[in-house]
Each structure stands twice: as structure tokens, then as C-alpha cells.
Write a structure and sequence with these properties.
The complex is a heterodimer.
Chain A lengths: L12 H7 L1 E5 L2 E8 L5 E5 L13 H4 L4 E5 L17 H14 L5 E7 H14 L7 E9 L10 H19 L1 H10 L9 H12 L9 H11 L1 H9 L5 E6 L7 H10 L3 E6 L6 H4 L1 H10 L1
Parallel strand pairs in A: 3-4, 3-5, 5-6, 6-7, 7-8
Antiparallel strand pairs in A: 1-2, 2-4
Chain B lengths: L2 H7 L1 E5 L2 E8 L5 E5 L13 H7 L1 E5 L17 H15 L3 E7 L1 H14 L6 E8 L12 H7 L1 H7 L3 H12 L11 H11 L4 H8 L2 H7 L1 H9 L5 E5 L8 H9 L6 E5 L10 H9 L7
Parallel strand pairs in B: 3-4, 3-5, 5-6, 6-7, 7-8
Antiparallel strand pairs in B: 1-2, 2-4
Helix pairs in contact in B: 3-4, 4-11, 7-8
Classes of the chains: A alpha/beta, B alpha/beta.
Chain lengths: 294, 291
């Protein structure tokens, strides 16, 4: 299937905000976009320091085929931001599941990217243990931190985590640093415009979004605590898992994903060539094609 | 009762391909499930089981990595995993409505289960929750040097191998640090330690002790679970507990608390091992002499 998307129009934040509503989930306001009149439904989980806005290019095309549910995690985008506490990955997973229940979603395909893949892995773990009610039929994971090494949490991983955390902390410091980090994640830097970056930064700054207490240190600690749980989740999956990955991603190690696919024959990779960490922004057509194929 | 006797009283259930040791006694329709503490096992409850099972159906399991349950090698056991295993096990046994009694490490598992209940994620009905001896506000906990060393990833590796120390540590906890002079249970302590020694349990202590980090991470989630609970929660506090010092109680006491939280101060340090009868009376109003 050939998908064509006009790559030149940039959407501003307030137009994006108008597409969605705030839904209260356990007393937290979650910004949710729910578009498309189809039986099949896709729920999308965004990455760290960005928001559902990452998907503005692909939404019109995707909603021709799916009921698309996009949400901003608590602490990101237009969702409620908590300045006095860290909202754990486990809490985020609870919220996603509750939101699916409130919207009465069924036959769900779950797509997750970056930080979202960890929330997805938590949901996979619970599904493997038959601890969730809703039916998720398929998981599609984008570029993210899929841990596959079954051995113990090693010093090597500690170094990787330290490197990651330095990078992530730097992103919060200023617009300049944020811009630099996001641009570096692209294969072709010209694919992301300054206007888009300003809109993304605006959403991040909204409601003191940068003041999240110690996000990184908590986040890294969680990655360590749940190392085995999440590795196990991917290895014991009961429903199909597909990976859609930009080939030239410098922020995550794609070799990991290869090993994962080699180890588990239920897991299949669809590569997007000449593309970095954000395929939905850098190669939106190919990304939509891959989603429809997966 | 020897550890082997205890083992023969229970049976094993397979949960997610792991064998979980379960004691299931009593014929009452009212069920109590018990989440034991760290680093012991269901054996802690051997003394109160005969009396408690006259009033309730009592289901106690050894957490994954503890007691007679499987101890998968090189797996970081998270409290979240323990909650998952407990929920799957209870489902497998066919329990629909339970009272949860939790001790120490088990209280964290119980609070995770309460969080899920508050978040509409589990169908199991929970009548009430009883939390005992818990270090609920960990930032006030004074970790002793040895606990700190055990927590250290690099040193802990070697320290865990000093197996004899582990025995001493438990013994100290039960004997010297407690104020009750009656305790003479060297014999019991030996058995608890022997069990910890099986399936290379010692190597797992290091991985298990990760739970300290988790309590920091989930502090908000679990305090919120207590604050928003629609299920009655009873908290039994012991002033003389050497680990959960009284500052913790003070902080908790001065905070705004849900009306469903009920506090009982366990002034005389009734414990399940030392004075089981008094403990039962305090927690369940079961009085052996009256019957």
C-alpha cells in the first residue's frame, strides 16, 4: 500500500490541543485524542520529553484504517504535570489500562516508542500473567530501550544507563540543548523544522513540565529494578510482538533488537531505512505503511 | 515443628512455571491470605496457624525466592513481581474474597495489591487489610551498616557469601535487639536459617534485598494507595521494633489519614513467634482462654 503524506505543513500546539480532550483517570487529567471510526483500534504511547504531538503527521492517514487513541503520559504534553512526585512506569501502565477501560476499547493494537516501550513492556508482563482484562491483540514497538540480555544487570548496563541519564538530563537544561538532542536523533536533520521543535518545547514547558522531581534518577532506578521482569516479558510473550525501527538510530542500540528477534521467533522486525529515532516524524509515509503491514 | 513437618503440611502450586509452596488450612468460608516478611518464610506462622485456622481458612505461601518456593537463579525479584505471583496463585486456588494479613516485606506486596485494587485492575474482593511491623516510611529508617553493605552491589556479592553472618544477623534480630527476654528460640532460628540455605537461597539474598530501592521508588504510589483505600486497613505498630523506628510512626500519625485506616499500637511487642496467643488476641480478637 502506498501512503502519501504532505510533509510540509507544520501543526501548532494549540491546534493539536483542540483535537483532544482531558479525561480524568484516577484524579489525573490525561490528554487524549480519539479519532477514527473503526472496529480495529490502535493505542499509541509516546517517548520521553515529547508527547502525542510526535504523531501529528501520521494521524490523518492512520485514522483512515484504525480508531486511533493517542495520549500524553502524566507529566508530559497537555496532560497533568506533577511537580512533587515521580509518576512511576507502573503507575503510567495502570493509567493506560484504565483509559482503555474507560473508552471501552477492544481488539487493541498497542504501539509504543522510546520511554513508552517500557510502559508497554510492563503491560506485556501483566498480560503474560493473565492479570489484565482488556484484549490487546498485538504489540508494535518502535525505537526504544528493549532490554534483551537475560543475564544479570551488569556494570556494562550501568555505564549505558549513566550515559543515557547524562544525555536525558542535558535535554532538560535549555531549548538549545533540547533541540540539539532531538536533532541528533534524526538521520536527516532537515526533516525536523525549528517550528516543530519550538512547539514541542512549548508543550514540555507548559505547567512547569520541566520541574518533575528527579525524573531521571527514578527512571534509571526503575530500569534496574525491572530489568529481569521486562526482559522476561519480551521473551515469554503470548501475543505477537513486531518491531518497527528506524535503521540509523544513534540513541539506542539496534543490535539489541536484532538479538531479540533472533532469540524469539515470534518477534519480527520491519526496518525503515535512512531514518533515525523518530520515524513517525522523519519518514511518516513509510512508518504508516509499516504499521499497516505489521 | 521441624521445617520438614511444615513442608509436608503444604503443597506446591505451579505459577508461571515456578513452584510456589502453599499452606492451606481451615474450613471456614472466611479466608485469610498471609504475605510473610523478609527474609523469612511462611514458617513464621507455624505457631499461630492451629488457632487461626479454627476461625478462618488460612492460605500462606512462600514468596518466590523464599522458603520452599522456587528460587530462580539470577533473577531480580521485584515487589511488583511478588504481587503478580500472589494474585495469580490466589486466582488459581479459586479465592474470590479475602482478608490480607501482611508482615514487613509482605506489606509492600500488600500495598501494591491495594494500588491495583484502587485502580480497578483486579477482580478479587478484599474485605480488609492488616499490616504489621512495617517500615512504611523508609526515608526515616536507620539502616545499619550491614544492611547498607548488603545493598551495595559490589560488596554485597562478597558479603552474601559470608553465610555465617546471615545466621547471626537473624539471630540478633530475634534475640538481642528485641526487648523481650523470653525469647530463647535459638532452635527456631536455626531452622529458619536452614531453609534460607536451601536451593542456594543465600546467593539470592543479594537480589532479594533490592526491595529497599523499590520502596523509595514506589513511596508515592503506595502512600496514595493507603490514603485512597476504600477497603478498611488495620495497621499494627510496634514501638520497640528495632528496624521500623518510632519516627516513622510519628510522621504517619501526623499526616492526614483516611478514615478507613485503623491504628493499633503494639506496645508490649506481641509477636507471632514469641507470644502467639497475645498476638492473635490483639490482631483478631481471638482469645484462646475464653473459649
Amino acid at each position: 500500500m502506498n501512503v502519501s503524506i504532505d510533509n510540509t505543513m507544520v501543526m501548532n500546539s494549540s491546534d493539536w490541543e483542540k483535537k483532544g480532550v482531558l479525561i480524568p483517570v484516577f484524579d489525573k487529567e490525561i490528554f487524549t485524542i480519539d479519532i477514527g471510526n473503526h472496529q480495529k483500534c490502535i493505542v499509541i504511547l509516546h517517548g520521553y520529553l515529547t508527547s502525542s504531538y510526535d504523531y501529528y503527521k501520521v494521524l490523518p492517514e492512520l485514522s483512515k484504517h484504525y480508531r486511533v487513541v493517542l495520549l500524553d503520559f502524566v507529566g508530559f504534553g497537555f496532560s497533568e504535570k506533577l511537580d512533587k512526585q515521580y509518576f512511576t512506569t507502573i503507575d503510567q501502565a495502570d493509567c493506560v489500562l484504565e483509559l482503555c477501560r474507560l473508552l471501552n476499547l477492544n481488539n487493541i493494537t498497542l504501539f509504543a516508542h522510546d520511554y513508552g516501550t517500557e510502559v508497554a513492556q510492563e503491560i506485556i508482563a501483566r498480560q503474560n500473567y493473565s492479570l489484565i482484562d482488556i484484549t490487546i491483540e498485538k504489540y508494535i514497538l518502535g525505537n526504544g530501550n528493549m532490554t534483551i540480555d537475560h543475564s544479570c544487570y551488569l556494570d556494562y548496563h550501568k555505564k549505558v544507563n549513566q550515559h543515557v541519564s547524562k544525555k536525558l538530563i542535558a535535554m532538560l537544561a535549555s531549548f538549545g540543548m533540547y533541540k540539539k538532542a532531538i536533532k541528533e536523533a534524526f538521520f536527516d536533520e532537515t526533516k525536523i523544522s525549528d517550528t516543530e521543535l519550538i512547539e514541542m518545547w512549548h508543550q514540555l514547558e507548559l505547567n512547569k513540565g520541566r520541574d518533575v522531581i528527579n525524573f531521571i534518577s527514578h527512571y534509571i532506578r526503575e530500569r534496574k529494578i525491572f530489568w529481569h521482569r521486562w526482559v522476561k516479558a519480551l521473551n515469554d510473550n503470548k501475543v505477537p510482538i513486531k518491531l518497527i525501527l528506524g535503521r540509523q538510530d544513534t540513541t539506542n542500540i539496534n543490535a539489541n533488537s536484532n538479538t531479540l528477534a533472533d532469540k524469539n521467533e515470534d518477534i519480527e522486525i520491519l526496518w525503515i531505512e535512512n531514518c533515525g529515532h523518530y520515524p513517525m516524524l522523519e519518514s511518516p509515509e513509510k512508518w504508516v505503511e509499516a504499521i499497516l503491514k505489521a | 515443628m521441624t521445617a520438614e513437618d511444615w513442608k509436608s503440611r503444604g503443597k506446591f502450586y505451579s505459577v508461571a512455571n515456578q513452584n510456589i509452596f502453599v499452606i492451606d488450612e481451615g474450613s471456614s468460608l472466611d479466608t485469610i491470605v498471609i504475605l510473610h516478611g523478609y527474609p523469612t518464610s511462611s514458617y513464621d506462622y507455624s505457631k499461630i496457624l492451629p488457632e487461626l485456622s479454627k476461625h478462618y481458612r488460612v492460605v500462606i505461601h512462600d514468596h518466590l525466592g523464599f522458603g520452599f518456593s522456587d528460587k530462580p537463579k539470577s533473577y531480580t525479584y521485584s515487589l511488583i513481581d511478588q504481587a503478580d505471583f500472589a494474585l495469580q496463585l490466589w486466582h488459581k486456588i479459586g479465592l474470590k474474597e479475602v482478608t490480607i494479613l501482611a508482615h514487613d516485606y509482605g506489606t509492600s506486596v500488600a500495598k501494591e495489591i491495594l494500588s491495583r485494587k484502587n485502580h480497578n485492575l483486579i477482580p478479587l474482593k478484599i474485605k480488609r487489610i492488616i499490616l504489621c511491623n512495617s517500615s512504611m516510611r523508609l526515608e526515616y529508617l536507620h539502616l545499619r551498616n550491614m544492611d547498607k553493605l548488603l545493598k551495595d552491589k559490589k560488596l554485597g556479592r562478597y558479603i552474601a557469601r559470608l553465610t555465617n553472618y546471615g545466621f547471626k544477623k537473624i539471630k540478633d534480630k530475634f534475640k538481642n535487639k528485641n526487648l523481650n527476654p523470653e525469647i530463647h528460640t535459638n532452635y527456631d532460628i536455626n531452622k529458619v536459617w536452614d531453609k534460607l540455605d536451601t536451593s542456594e537461597g543465600k546467593n539470592e539474598i543479594l537480589l532479594l534485598s533490592n526491595f529497599i530501592n523499590e520502596r523509595y521508588t514506589f513511596w508515592h504510589r503506595w502512600t496514595e494507595a493507603l490514603k485512597n483505600s476504600e477497603i478498611p486497613v488495620k495497621i499494627i505498630w510496634e514501638k520497640s521494633d528495632p528496624v521500623a523506628i518510632k519516627e516513622i510512626a510519628i510522621v504517619l500519625a501526623t499526616e492526614e489519614i483516611n478514615e478507613n485506616l485503623d491504628w493499633i499500637e503494639n506496645e508490649r511487642y506481641f509477636s507471632i513467634l514469641e507470644n502467639p496467643t497475645n498476638w492473635l488476641n490483639l490482631v483478631f480478637n481471638i482469645n484462646e482462654s475464653k473459649r
